[in-house]
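User: I'm new to structure prediction. If I give you an amino acid sequence, what do you actually give back? Let's try with this one:
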Amino acid sequence: MAYDEILYEQRGDVALITLNRPDKLNAWTRQMHGELTDAVQTANAERAVGAIVFTGAGRGFCAGADIGRQFQSRIESTKETSDAAAQAPKATEPEPATNWVNLVRASKPMVAAINGAAIGVGLTLTLPMDQLVAAHDAKLSARFVKMGLVPELASSHFLVQRCGWGAASDLSLSGRIVTGTEAAAMGLVDRACPAEEVLEVALGLAADYAANPDPQLRMIKDLLTRNGAGVDLDAVQHAELSALYQAYATPEHHEAVAAFMEKRAPRFR
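Assistant: Good question. You get back a string of structure tokens that encode the predicted 3D arrangement of the chain. For your 269 residues, that looks like this:
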């Protein structure tokens, strides 16, 4: 697939995906969503890739949805009916963007290098990822309420998971903007650093993850997804044991044991 709104390259065993609409601060569109989905699937299928990094071209990471392209047609279509509820997607028919969360959680490790503004969907598309690195002066906001909307992409879950009930409530109910430094202090992102270091820090983290075996990385992501908010500890342990027995049978486990016994580095890829 040829890409118009993103860039894709491989650096060592890390795939780098860059949102590439710098004149629009990389504002999200449905076309960009399709290209991002394809790029992630490409990275997942490439054995030489062990992890994925996302960043933005130019001054921003992603300044939210492209309002001119995405919202006006929706507003016009809503005006055509007096029953606004009829416009809401059915539970069995999610909008395409909803699938992003499942894709992220089922994929190879993902790191976001938030080099600038990450507003609305520009923030929430990163929340399911495994590590978020932000520039000190990056501006982040879950400002859906400011647009008369509500959070999406499971962000009402991930905001609480990442920064707790109080901070998640404040960010969602106020729609306020925080800097990368503030975001790191509250746990919204995992670390903040100078803008010129964001990409290299993210690539370094991704390379650390990529050094580990693919099947086990994905099993661990699945366990964290299913068990992170689990309250039935018996069910949590059952899921872990099931995955553990699967891991025992993998060639990656066998290679790790052989490498340990032979006092050498394991070869997973």
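You can read the tokens as a compact description of the fold. Here is one thing that stands out. The beta strands are 6-11, 14-19, 51-56, 110-114, 118-119, 131-135, 139-141, 178-179, 191-193.
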